[in-house]
């Protein structure tokens, strides 16, 4: 696990984009794992800027989403497919038809989950997966108590998650779906390179548990410690609880130029 502590959002976006771009430059047909939420936005903005400057092309890539609500009608502005289109795909040359998410409208949701796992496998697996982390340590919709070996599945959203997400639905908790489909922790760990972005003091405890705590279902993101290639990109506030933060800063500062991510 490589921990990168940076000064501001602009640096976070640039370094996160570097981590993604190295895969695409090495293999223009790379498979990308995309996350919604505020954490990856600086990375998406920097990638879009590079595409506009013709420094990078995503036209040959495929992409898979981490999760999706169950039951939202097609085109609903808060479906995660619509969100990722708005936040990222509309601003780059990634072909929309090459972006796939879980089918939240499937008649047989369990079969849709199995089909999604198979689609990722048929694509050769995810080369680089972007992630955020919740203040309680969740990744995707794998909330505390989730199995660390879980696969794509249907989950019931907690009352707290629905209350937190009500702001995206006009403040109406009743409008927030009760269920979602999410990649499991085991599915996420299958990606070849995980790039997690966290900013702000509200994420500090989760980051501490993710990087330096015990691996536990109480902090699902801690399972990332079991992965061979993880890059954790933080601002100073998110890194404030790390006991070894000075070491992480020093190690990144003297990293050989050829090492990459």
From TrEMBL:
Coiled coil: none
Pfam family for this entry, one: Glucosamine_iso
Keyword Hydrolase appears in the UniProt entry: yes
Active site location: 67 (proton acceptor), 136 (for ring-opening step), 138 (proton acceptor), 143 (for ring-opening step)
Gene3D superfamilies: 3.40.50.1360
GO annotation terms (biological process): carbohydrate metabolic process; glucosamine catabolic process; N-acetylglucosamine catabolic process; N-acetylneuraminate catabolic process
EC number: 3.5.99.6
Record pathway: Amino-sugar metabolism; N-acetylneuraminate degradation; D-fructose 6-phosphate from N-acetylneuraminate: step 5/5
GO molecular function, one term: identical protein binding
Activity regulation description: Allosterically activated by N-acetylglucosamine 6-phosphate (GlcNAc6P).
Enzyme class: hydrolase
Origin: domain of life: Bacteria
A single Gene Ontology CC term: cytoplasm
Residues covered by the Glucosamine/galactosamine-6-phosphate isomerase domain: 25-228
Catalytic activity: alpha-D-glucosamine 6-phosphate + H2O = beta-D-fructose 6-phosphate + NH4(+)
Job description of the protein: Catalyzes the reversible isomerization-deamination of glucosamine 6-phosphate (GlcN6P) to form fructose 6-phosphate (Fru6P) and ammonium ion.
Similarity comment text for this entry: Belongs to the glucosamine/galactosamine-6-phosphate isomerase family. NagB subfamily.
This protein's name: Glucosamine-6-phosphate deaminase
Organism: Ornithinimicrobium avium
